[in-house]
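Materials and Methods. Structural model of Bifunctional diguanylate cyclase/phosphodiesterase. The 291-residue sequence of Bifunctional diguanylate cyclase/phosphodiesterase from Pengzhenrongella frigida was retrieved and submitted for structure prediction as follows.
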Amino acid sequence: AAARRRPGRVARYQAKMESGGALALLLIGELADALRHGDLVLHYQPQVDLRSARVFAVEALVRWQHPKYGLLGPGAFIPAAEQSGLIGPLTQYVLDRALAQNARWHRDGLDLTVAVNLSARNLLDPHLVDHVSAALGRHGLDAGTLELEITESSAMVDPRRCIQVLTRLATMGVTLSVDDYGTGHSSLAYLQRLPVTRLKIDQSFVTNMVSDQPSAAIVRSTIELARNLHLDVVAEGVENDETLLALRDMHCPGVQGYGLGRPVPPPQVPELITRIESRIPEILRSHRPSA
Ligand code: C2E
Ligand code: MG
Ligand code: MG
Ligand code: MG
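The predicted structure was written out as tokens:
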């Protein structure tokens, strides 16, 4: 009813559905096959601890190697997968691939944590915890090698249930993060009840923080808030050295972004980690922290 009183909004929504919707519909028909054929691939982007200059985790980001359309980003098919019921199988696929890859890295002596993104629907799936536990077992990995990212808004869909599921995962030893923090409308009181380890500050604030004072203020206060709640923080969307230095001056513990490394296919991960770990101290050394 609220939408009906605002025709401009409805028209914009419909236009959006029509422009993005046709391809999404076309793709969704093919997604089940793509999962069966293994056409979805994962790229990995490092998350860096600024204090130690070490890469402590890599985030798995799904892409679709489509025979006709080339490499498609998640924006092209995740929303449709969420609406069609395929997000369950897709998440299981991603989880299995990510853990298989991490088991290989561990065998090669690379001790990494892999972060996997969950959708709101996954949190409502009564089998989620069993699937996670089975996947870890299948690949012989400790729960401590897995991080699961839930968005702030998906944690708000069914708070009671979310707390239950996250508590079971945390008890297993899985690390939990709140993704896209700052874009949802969760209350602090609620967030504090979630057994999460980390807040990931949404890139929309971080990318602009050097030139946009309000964004900088949001980033700064989030870092402070997280510290007071004993939560770890990763700033997402760090695109350049200037932003990295501003975050260091705010005592931000973790960073992730194109300026450090874009998401890359698995074979490029070890070299990217080495490059980042040698570059960070150089950047930090070349600029003294401001008082
Ligand atoms: P996200 O989890 O917040 O992931 C970060 C996104 O920001 C990634 O886009 C990453 O490539 C991009 N990014 C990283 N650094 C920078 C930077 O410095 N600047 C800018 N402008 N962007 C940066 P991507 O890979 O296109 O993924 C978009 C979103 O799709 C993800 O956001 C996540 O919500 C979703 N997604 C990706 N993989 C999966 C998945 O396996 N399952 C589910 N459910 N969602 C996924
Ligand atoms: Mg994420
Ligand atoms: Mg994010
Ligand atoms: Mg995001």
